[in-house]
Amino acid sequence: MRNMKSILAAASMACLLSLAPAASARDVVHSMGTTEVPDAPQRVVVLTNEGTEALLAVGITPVGAVRSWLGDPWYDHIADEMAEVTVLGEESAVNLELLAALEPDLIIGTKIRHEAIYGQLSAIAPTVISERLRGDWKINMELYAEAVGKSAEAKAAFDAYDTRIAVISAALGAAKAEEISLVRFMAGRTRIYLKDTFAGNVLSQIGFARPANQDRDEFVDEVTKERIPEFQGDRLFYFIYETGDGAADTSAAEWMADPLWAALPVVSAGKAQGVSDAIWNTAGGIIAANVMLDEIEAIYGLPSTRQ
Fold first, then answer.
1. Which of 282, 204, 268, 205 is nearest to 231 (CA)?
2. What is the pLDDT, as a whole number, of residue 24?
3. Residue 279 has what pLDDT?
4. Could you tell me if 27 and 34 are in contact, meaning their C-beta atoms sit under 8 angstroms apart?
5. If you ran DSSP here, which 8-state letter would residue 181 be given?
6. Which of the 8 DSSP states describes residue 105?
7. Prediction pTM value
8. Strands, sheet with 64-65, edge to edge from the N-terminal-most edge strand
9. Spatial distance between the Cα atoms of 189 and 187, rounded to a whole number of angstroms
10. Which of 9, 26, 270, 284 sits in a 20 to 30 Å window from 53, CA-based?
11. 3-state class of 246 per DSSP?
């Protein structure tokens, strides 16, 4: 009799479910194809750092995310909002078992990191994949916002950001003619950052000039100490990717102790300045972009455009 009641209950539930309206969904075109996603996903997982900022900016806290490149486990500027979010490994090493256990209804990633595991991700939940990273944070945010049904919120965030850019650019006036050099120190390697980078993109939007050797729509130049003279600009911003073992700080100190560094006119003029790697490079999203604008305002003595 108990089995019969169970069968009847299950049948009744199945009938009710069949009568319930199907959850609405829509197609989103992305770098790996077209994916049907729910109209209002409730459990979103994000596998890029810039994607995390995009979601937070449109009012969505993910249930799971890859850890920040710097921080324990999140960048300081988003840590409070991410306090309850499950850490899913790193961008380049996602914990798929933990991800699946979260039972997401949407996964967001990027082709440059996740092409090889796209099939596994798609088997867990609908997955939307951006093409690449570097200077594409606005393009990617537009895609992610479409995927989560928050395009209007993304447009509002872009409008506010673009307004800040316009006001700062106008306030800088002739100061935009300063050629800005960007350099990054890491353990075992040093790079000049060109225009197709996060910081390079923001500087270009403002209208800053770049030294001739850096005025290229490319990613980075790996350099040796003999090429320190190529760091020269009217102003030099450098950032250090320090992961906690001190190796990057040691490397940066060694480069700055080199006579070629001391011989740079920008250094002797006191216009070589360290800035946050998290804000100027690795976070890579709209929240960091706004903090970077805060710092540029402070550096150039401009009034704040924060709303």
1. 268
2. 79
3. 96
4. yes
5. E
6. S
7. 0.87
8. 86-87, 64-65, 44-46, 106-110, 127-130
9. 6
10. 26
11. coil
Residue 20 pLDDT grade (very low, low, confident, very high; cuts 50, 70, 90) = very low
Band (pLDDT 50/70/90 cuts) for residue 50 is very high
29-46 mean pLDDT? 93
Are 140 and 160 within 8 A, CB to CB?
no
Single out the residue of 198, 216, 90, 207 nearest to residue 137, CA to CA. Answer: 198
Q: Residue 187 contacts by C-beta under 8 Å, 6 or more apart in sequence?
A: 241, 243, 245, 247, 248, 250, 251
Task: Name residue 119's amino acid.
Answer: G
pLDDT by residue (tens digit) across 212-247? Answer: 999 999 999 999 999 999 999 999 999 999 988 899
Residue type, 202: V
Q: How many CB atoms lie within 10 A of CB 25?
A: 14
CB 180 within 8 A of CB 210: yes
Sign of the C-alpha dihedral computed for residues 50, 195, 301 and 304 taken in this order: negative
Pair type for strands 86-87 and 64-65: parallel
Instruction: Give how far Cα 24 sits from Cα of 36, 37, 41, 123, 152, Å.
Output: 10, 9, 10, 20, 19
Structure-token pair, residue 37: 């996603």
- 3-class state of residue 210 by DSSP: coil
* Kind of pairing between the strands at 235-240 and 180-186: parallel
Instruction: Summarize the chain as % helix, strand, coil (round to 5).
Output: 45, 20, 35
Which one, of 105, 101, 136, 135, lies nearest residue 122 by Cα?
105
Instruction: Please tell me what DSSP assigns to residue 43.
Output: S
Cβ(70)–Cβ(61) below 8 Å = no
Residues 6+ apart with CB under 8 A from 299: 273
The per-residue pLDDT for 120 is: 96
What backbone torsions phi and psi does residue 138 show, to the nearest 5 degrees?
Answer: -75, -40
